[in-house]
């Protein structure tokens, strides 16, 4: 826990000294934040989770065929950020039904989440071979270089959209580096659509997304001894069709000072000054193909829902 707090404290110190002030969305997910995000995924406005489920239900067999080795040999299905594995279970059932020998290797930094996932899989899919990896992405990617046999890597849920353009390209190159020609990479991309629908997905009428964003300040109060008064902060989101970026902010509604005890530092906020907390980029298929090419990858197959809201794209080096 000390290392995590030290990392969080260092991040907050760096982010709140910047102009504009910035905090990473990776720190949204404490226990309360994780529960709030589960609620977000069930909201009527939040389409990404439902649409990726629909893709897996409709195209599961074809996706499995695109991910499996051509020679029918053994391979590992490696999922970065496995979480509760709800969507992936659809693919796992297809793989088990198809019969090829494979091992599922979920990767997550949370040991607690991994324990729950493995227990659920043992109960629901007892024939499945599971080798959990409790590591961050960078460490897991290094381990992939020495992974024996073929592999298919999953990065689902439009998480690629949380990276800025330069970081996104660098991350895809890191994913590509340990892949052999026979290996595959499946990435989920949220597609550009009606701008009003996109914005509503990140600013729902019930205020759950606002609570999710504001919970970051509650976490800093609890873990770093900060004194953010949530009565003087609000959630704001915008979406630009020009670059496909949803941006989320925490807005200071008055001039105020915030003390962070762990840092022994006080930060000044002007009225209506913002803390930028999240980006979520949306894509077109030509953009995805161009990004893949720049990262040293090619599109093998792509699968979309009926409305064209979301794409799961199979890539290879």
Describe the structure.
The chain has 317 residues and is of the alpha/beta class. 36% of the residues are buried. The two termini are 38 Å apart. The protein folds into two domains: 2-45 and 197-281; 49-193 and 286-316, 3-Layer(aba) Sandwich (Rossmann fold), CATH 3.40.50. α2 packs antiparallel against α9 and α3 packs parallel to α4. A hairpin with a 4-residue loop joins β6 and β7. The chain has helices at residues 2-17, 31-41, 48-67, 88-98, 111-124, 137-144, 165-176, 195-201, 208-224, 285-294; strands at residues 21-22, 75-80, 102-107, 150-155, 184-190, 233-240, 245-252, 256-260, 265-269, 274-281, 298-304, 310-316. The strands form three sheets. Strands 3-2-4-5-12-11 form a six-stranded mixed sheet, with helices on both faces. A four-stranded mixed sheet has the order 1-10-7-6. A two-stranded antiparallel ribbon has the order 8-9. One of its GO terms (biological process) is methylation.
């Amino acid at each position: 826990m000390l290392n995590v707090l030290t990392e969080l404290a260092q991040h907050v110190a760096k982010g709140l000294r910047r102009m504009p002030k910035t905090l990473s969305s990776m720190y949204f997910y404490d226990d309360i934040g994780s529960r709030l995000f589960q609620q977000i995924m069930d909201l009527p406005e939040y389409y990404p989770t439902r649409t990726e489920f629909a893709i897996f239900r409709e195209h599961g067999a074809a996706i499995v065929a695109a991910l499996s080795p051509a020679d029918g040999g053994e391979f590992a299905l490696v999922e970065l950020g496995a979480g509760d594995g709800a969507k992936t279970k659809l693919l796992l059932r297809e793989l088990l039904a198809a019969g090829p020998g494979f091992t599922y290797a979920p990767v997550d930094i949370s040991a607690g989440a991994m324990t729950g996932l493995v227990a659920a899989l043992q109960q629901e899919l007892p024939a499945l071979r599971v080798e959990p990896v409790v590591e961050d992405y960078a460490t897991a990617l290094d381990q992939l270089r020495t992974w024996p046999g073929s592999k298919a890597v999953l990065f689902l849920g439009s998480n690629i959209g949380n990276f800025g353009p330069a970081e996104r390209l660098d991350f895809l190159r890191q994913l590509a580096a340990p892949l052999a020609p026979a290996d595959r990479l499946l990435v989920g991309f949220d597609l550009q659509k009606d701008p009003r629908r996109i914005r509503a997905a990140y600013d729902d009428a019930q205020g759950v997304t606002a609570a999710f964003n504001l919970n970051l300040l509650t976490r800093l109060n609890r873990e770093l001894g900060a004194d953010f008064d949530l009565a003087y902060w609000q959630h704001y989101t915008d979406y630009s069709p020009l670059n496909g970026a949803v941006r989320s902010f925490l807005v200071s509604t008055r001039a105020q000072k915030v003390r962070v005890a762990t840092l022994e530092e006080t930060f000044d906020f002007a009225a209506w000054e913002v803390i930028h907390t999240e980006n979520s980029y949306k894509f077109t298929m030509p953009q995805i193909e161009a990004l893949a090419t720049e990262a040293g990858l090619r599109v093998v197959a792509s699968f979309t829902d009926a409305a064209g809201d979301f794409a799961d794209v199979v890539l290879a080096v």
